[in-house]
Specification:
104 residues; two-stranded antiparallel sheet; DNA-binding protein; globular; mainly alpha
Amino acid sequence: MTEREICELFGVIAPTVRAEIKALCKSGVLSIYDIQRIIRISDRYSAEVYNLETIAALAFRVESFGAAKVRRALLERIIHERKEKTAVFVSVVSDGKPNSRWKA
């Protein structure tokens, strides 16, 4: 996504997005070299785009109605999208000695 698209998604202005990206990079959460790419649109035009990791990190950093909607959508996908059943197997083994410990 471009900076403009991020601004529209979160409902904030560009300086807010830039400041939050800078803060995320300064804190070590993101690396400036990994989060953005420059794509060529034509011979004369190019665009800086940010990856999904950046969008997700910004969603949890920016306080706006749009960011809250993105946070909810991300968490909804993470928590509720797993429809398949997950089996958990725990084996309890004892070697028969009186002082043996349970192993799981």
